[in-house]
Specification:
By secondary structure, the protein is α+β, with helices and mostly antiparallel strands. About 30% of the residues lie in helices and about 20% in strands. The strands form five sheets. Strands 1, 2, 6, 7, 8, 9, 16 and 17 form an eight-stranded mixed beta sheet that branches. The model is unreliable at about 145-155 (pLDDT under 50).
């Protein structure tokens, strides 16, 4: 009996890996997610979704699930914690941040992936991999359970796949086994983060926190319910090994140092530390193995961009890898994942490092912060920084052409429904007000819609499955030169 070859193995069952698994299953790709942890982590690493991630959930018909568990907040005040209102008329129908714990995000994405047919094997740790021109063989250090509750084979098992994607975090085993470089800057400052109970009265806590945060922007306590708080405080220094969690006493000592009180902290649920290191993988693809999320880039959590950057990686990669598996991907499509996403992450590394500097208590950075705060009173500056943080300002380089080219298309009203309602299946889409264009030969990959409202201020646009504009115009011969670049050769 021959070895069963999986289409794609995804290593890592966090938000990036789970988003990718769902995207691949939309296109019928056989996908298995390997997650080292035997149970979902109970603590909250990230706290919300920015605008572009919210739009992506809407594009896949998932947004209602997220809205039912989240809370909407204004998009202003995220850049270096500079308190400014959101710019007017942001280019989106979702001008808010969705506050939702990562534990809930992970659960919703896992449920979606399993609904679509993905297999999630928990307690499975990848300890080795080797690849050849036909696929990737992985070695598991231990067994695990399947997403449906069945038991996977135990001990030293090997799996074979056509492709593999490492979504296994900043200390990525996949990246290390590949030997892909991870250059960047080490941490210079460190912050303690944890969930614990506080006995201080809420009003006292709020008053002290407001006073401390006038100077120390890396300080805070957010109520999670049942007297449990998410607490953030600057560390005393940079630890030699950040994988070793801080003690409760270390937390209390730092709270007293900055606030004059430890707020009666006790009964911690989890304690951790993070630094401001910025590192990025030299390449996102090595043969049949790719990297996404924190495995490809790490940076300070300033602005809340980390989780969002990862799921946006998955959204870009999913349909391209599915096309490769299906056999219709044009030359260079899979490599465009690196070409498009590497500069985006590089920009996030730059802006998070800048934010860390602006949150310093040193006189020079504080003066720069004050100047930037004054500049953000100009709508153009505020809008530019807001679009950067929320990722709706991302524009991929598709060459010269219409001003929409390379940008994601905001949701627009059509004569029948909304644009994003037509994108749930992850296919390409031609919005055609002229009624004269055709995608004949690509109907299995591109939907053609002519019931377009005047809200679309261009005759026609071709959207990739991720919602980015691949072409805009009204000339059929011109359209036919672009379609093969993204959707391969026509059928027949």
């Amino acid at each position: 009996m021959g070895v069963v070859v999986i289409d794609v193995i995804v290593v890592g069952g966090g938000p990036t890996g789970l988003m990718l698994a769902g995207e691949l299953r939309l296109h019928g790709v056989h996908v298995v997610v390997l997650e080292r942890e035997s149970e979902p982590l109970p603590y909250v690493r990230a706290l919300g979704l920015h605008v572009r991630s919210i739009e992506m959930m809407d594009q896949r018909g998932l947004l209602d699930r997220f809205l039912a568990h989240g809370r909407q907040y204004p998009v202003g005040g995220f850049f270096a914690a500079i308190e400014k209102p959101a710019p007017e008329r942001l280019d989106t129908t979702h001008p808010y941040v969705l506050g939702i714990p990562q534990t809930t995000t992970d659960r919703l994405l896992a449920e979606r992936a399993v609904e679509l047919g993905a297999e999630i094997r928990r307690g499975c740790e990848l300890v080795g991999l080797r690849q050849d021109e036909h696929g990737v063989t992985v070695e598991l250090g231990n067994g695990g359970t399947r997403g449906d509750g069945g038991v996977a084979a135990r001990g030293g098992k090997e799996l074979r796949s056509r492709y593999l994607v490492g979504c296994d975090g900043g200390r990525s085993t996949v990246r290390k086994l590949l030997g892909v470089g991870f250059p960047g800057e080490p941490s210079r400052v460190e912050t303690l983060l944890g969930e614990m109970e506080l006995t201080a009265a809420p009003k006292t806590l709020a008053a002290v926190m407001a006073e401390v945060r006038r100077i120390h922007k890396r300080f805070g306590a957010m109520p999670l319910g049942d007297e449990v708080y998410r607490v953030v405080v600057p560390a005393e220094g940079v630890s030699e090994d950040r994988s070793v969690p801080p003690t409760l006493e270390e937390f209390k000592r730092q709270l007293r140092a900055f606030a004059g009180t430890d707020f009666g902290a006790h009964s911690p649920r989890w304690l951790s530390r993070f630094g401001d290191a910025t590192r990025q993988a030299e390449r996102y693809r090595a043969g049949r193995v790719l990297l996404a999320g924190d495995a490809a880039h790490i940076h300070p959590p300033t602005g809340g961009q980390g989780l969002n950057l990862g799921v946006q990686d998955a959204f870009n990669l999913g349909w391209k890898l599915a096309a490769e598996v299906a056999g219709w991907a044009p030359d260079g499509l899979l490599d465009s994942y690196h070409t498009e996403r590497h500069p985006v992450a590089a920009d996030v590394l730059h802006n998070t490092r800048a934010q860390i500097e602006l949150m310093s208590t040193e006189p020079g950075p504080r003066s720069v912060r004050r100047l930037l705060s004054e500049l953000m009173d100009f709508d153009e500056v505020n809008r530019y920084l807001t679009e950067k943080i929320t990722a709706i300002g991302v524009r991929y380089d598709f060459g010269d052409g219409h001003e929409l080219l390379g940008r994601r298309m905001r949701d627009v009203r059509l004569k029948r429904g909304r644009l994003y309602e037509l994108m749930h299946g992850g296919r390409g889409l031609l919005l055609d007000q002229t009624g004269r264009l055709s995608v004949a030969g690509w109907e299995d990959r591109i939907d053609h819609v002519t019931d377009v409202s005047e809200e679309l201020d261009v005759p026609a646009v071709l959207l990739r499955p991720d919602g980015h504009v691949a072409w805009a115009g009204e000339d059929q011969p011109d359209l036919l030169t672009v379609i093969p670049r993204w959707f391969g050769t026509r059928i027949g």
